[in-house]
Amino acid sequence: MTRSESLFQEAVKYIPGGVNSPVRAFGSIGSTPRFIAKADKAYMWDEDGNQYIDFIGSWGPMILGHNHPATMQAVLEACTNGLSFGAATEPEVIMAKLICDIVPSIDMVRMVNSGTEAVMSAIRVARGYTGRDKIIKFTGCYHGHSDGLLVKAGSGVMTAGVPDSSGVPVSVTSDTLTAEYNNPDSVRTLFERYGEQIAAIIVEPVAANMGVVPPAPGFLQSLRYICDQYGSILIFDEVITGFRLSLTGAQGYYDIKPDLTTFGKIIGAGMPVGAYGGRRDIMEQVSPVGNVYQAGTLSGNPVAMAAGITQLTILKEHPEYYTQLNNTADEFFNKIKEILLRKDLPWQVNHVGSIGSLFFTETPVTDYSSAKKSDVSAYAHYCNQMLSHGIYIAPAQFEAMFLSLAHTQEDLQQTLDTIAICL
Ligand SMILES: *Cc1c(COP(=O)(O)O)cnc(C)c1O
Q1: pTM for this structure?
Q2: Rounded CA gap, 307 and 273, in Å?
Q3: Rounded to the nearest 5°, which phi and psi values hold at 183?
C-alpha cells in the first residue's frame, strides 16, 4: 500500500470522505487521492515521493507558481508581527486600494475569507440595494456552497429553483431562477415574467466549473443590457477569472463592466481570501455604513493580506506576464487539438487564456447540457493515466486545467507528449 493510500484509510475514519472538499476525493475517477507533501514552482510531490507537473495550482491561486519567493517572504514577515488582531490594519487599506486601482468597475471592496462568502455577500448586497429578492444563476455555473446557490436546473425556465443538496430548504432556493449559459433568450424569458422582482444576475463570465465553457460572442453584453433595462445588478463571479484572464479579469478581457464583482483564489495567493466589490453607491449599503449586514472575525487577516498584496503587486507591475501566459496557453491548447486530429479523436478542447478543458464528446461544448455529454469514464481513464505519468490534472471532468507562469516550455512539451500517450 502506498503512503497516500494508508493516509486515505486513516482520513476516511475522521473526515467525511477523507477530504475537506469533495473534488479532492478522486471518487469521480474511481481512485483515491494522492496526498500532497510539498510543491514548488509548477511541481508537486506526494507523500510517496512521486513528482507531478501540477495543472491545478490550488484551483487557480498559484498563477505565479508554488512558493513564489516574494510571496513567501511577505507571509513569513507578516507572521512575525502576529497572526491576527481582530482590529483594523494597514495591509487591509493597501489591499483595498490595490484592487480599486486595478479594476475600473470597483470603487469599494470588502475582504472575506472564501469565494463562497464573497458571492453570498454580494448577492445580499444586490438584494439590499434593489429591494428585490429573486436572482438568476446559470445552470452549470458554480458560485460556492451557500444555500441559495445550490440549485438544480429547473424542469423549465418558469420553475423556481429546486435544491441540489439535501439540507437546503426549498424556501431558500425558491428565489433562485435558473437560465441556460450562452442562451440570452432563457434570460429574457425570466425577465419578461419576473423582471421587476429580479435583484441580480450572477454569472461566471467564463464558466469554469462545468469544465471551461467560453461565453458566446454577445452573451455577456446581453446580460449587461437586460440588467440595465430592468434596474437589476450584474454580478460577475470572477473567483477563477479574476486577475487570471487579464489583470482586470474577464471584465477587462471582454470589456464589460459589471456592477459587482466577486474574487477568491488568485486574490489570496493560496491563503483563504475572498473579496467582493463594485460601484460605490451599491457598496455603501454594506454595514457599518449601510443596512446590509456582513462581517468576519478573520476577514482581512494580515498574513493573508500580505500574500495577496504581494501577488497582485507583482501581476500589476508585469502586464507582459498576461500576454506571455495567454500566448503560451493558446499554443498549448492548440497542440492538444493537433494531437486529437493526429489520432483521429473527435473530442473537444475549450479554453480561454490559461484555463481550459478537454471534453470527451463529439459535439461542441457551449453549456451545461452539452458539457454533460462528455464520457466521464473516458475522462477517468485518461486522468488516471496522466497521474501515473506524473501529470496532475483535475480528478473530475467538469473542472479546468490551470496553466501558470511557472510552467516551462519543457514542462508543457512533456505534458503534451504524455497526453499523446494517454489518449
Ligand atoms: C471556487 C469558486 C467559488 C467558491 O470559492 P471557495 O473559495 O471555494 O468558497 C465561487 N465561484 C467560483 C466561480 C469558483 O470557481
Answers
A1: 0.97
A2: 10
A3: -125, 85
Q: Per residue in 175-217, pLDDT tens?
A: 999 999 999 999 999 999 999 999 999 999 999 999 999 999 9
Q: Is residue 152 annotated as a catalytic residue, yes or no?
A: no
Could you report the per-residue pLDDT of 312-370, keeping only the tens digit for each?
A: 999 999 999 999 999 999 999 999 999 999 999 999 999 999 999 999 999 999 999 99
Domains and CATH numbers, the chain: 3-55+320-422 (3.90.1150.10), 69-317 (3.40.640.10)
Read off the pLDDT of each residue in 221-227 and give the average, rounded to a whole number.
98
Burial classification of residue 293, based on how many CB atoms lie within 10 Å of its CB (0-12 exposed, 13-18 middle, 19 or more buried): exposed
Q: Which residues line ligand 1 (CB under 6 A)?
A: 114-116, 119, 142-144, 204, 209, 237, 239-240, 264, 274
User: How far does the centroid of ligand 1 lie from the alpha carbon of residue 235, in Å?
Assistant: 14
Compute the distance from residue 287 Cα to the ligand 1 centre, in Å. Answer: 23
Whether pLDDT at 157 is above 50: no
User: Hey, which of 59, 117, 119 would you mutate to test ligand 1's pocket, going by the most ligand atoms within 8 Å of its Cβ?
Assistant: 119
Known catalytic membership, residue 335: no
Find the catalytic residue in 142, 181, 253, 368: 142
Say whether 14 is catalytic: no
Residue 157 C-alpha cell reads as 425556465
Q: Determine which one of 54, 175, 237, 367 is catalytic.
A: 237
160/176 Cα distance (integer angstroms): 6
What confidence category does residue 164 fall into, taking pLDDT thresholds of 50, 70 and 90?
confident
The Cα 71–Cα 78 span in angstroms is: 11
The pLDDT value given to residue 153: 63
